[in-house]
Design brief:
Blueprint lengths: L1 H20 L2 H15 L9 H9 L5 H26 L13 H24 L3 H5 L1 H20 L5 H13 L8 H22 L6
């Protein structure tokens, strides 16, 4: 239960900072802090794409995968509620009009792939120096991927951000849910590719 609560808390603050600032560096630094907070509790996923990759690597059971994703989506939804309460405006994510669907999907897949690969490398390896650097490297990697992808796809790379905010927007009569498929399938595909790529490029980490 502690793991699920940690995932909800982490996702809540991640979406909260994302919604209030839209600043990739602020989001990345927040993720860095949250990783150090929750790494020993839940693994500090805060992202269904990360949890899905861990499931594919057999580091997470199917029941826990469901629990993690539900907690992450709940955290994202509660963050959207708080943003609405404090800012008196609905926060949701949508792709820019300057790119097409293929470019947006490519961006979400590729940059999530890089982020999840780093997350897996710094989580599965038992090397103490690597585990100590996990929060710093993961946070800065996510910030970097957001910086690159924001102008192409809107830079979400995390279905919890899209589902959480689109759910509240839908309740209030909005239609941002039309973008949920892009921000779900793209990151999940990137996470799956990262899990398979890790097996190919780092077979020493298998088992």
């Amino acid at each position: 239960m502690q793991a699920y609560i940690m995932e909800a808390i982490g996702s809540f603050f991640l979406v909260l900072v994302f919604g209030f600032t839209g600043d990739p560096l602020a989001v990345g630094l927040t993720l860095m802090a949250l990783v150090y907070m929750g790494a020993q509790v839940s693994g500090a996923h805060y992202n269904p794409a990360v949890s899905f990759a861990f499931f594919l690597k057999r580091k997470l059971h199917a029941f826990d995968l469901l629990g993690y994703i539900c907690a992450q989506l709940l955290g994202g939804f509660l963050a959207a509620v708080v943003i609405y309460f404090l800012a008196n405006a609905v926060f949701y994510v949508e792709p820019p009009a300057t790119s097409n669907l293929y470019q947006q999907a490519f961006s979400e897949v590729v940059f999530t792939f890089i982020f999840v690969m780093v997350m897996l490398l710094f989580s599965i390896s038992a090397s103490p120096p690597r585990s100590q650097l996990k929060g710093l490297v993961v946070g800065l990697t996510f910030a970097g991927m957001l910086m690159v992808s924001t102008s192409i796809s809107g830079g979400v790379l995390n279905p919890a951000i899209s589902w959480g905010t689109a759910s509240l927007d839908f309740i209030l009569g909005g239609n941002s849910y039309v973008h949920v498929l892009l921000y779900t399938l793209g990151p999940l595909t990137g996470g799956a590719l990262a899990a398979f790529a890790l097996s190919f490029m780092h077979p020493e980490l298998e088992g």
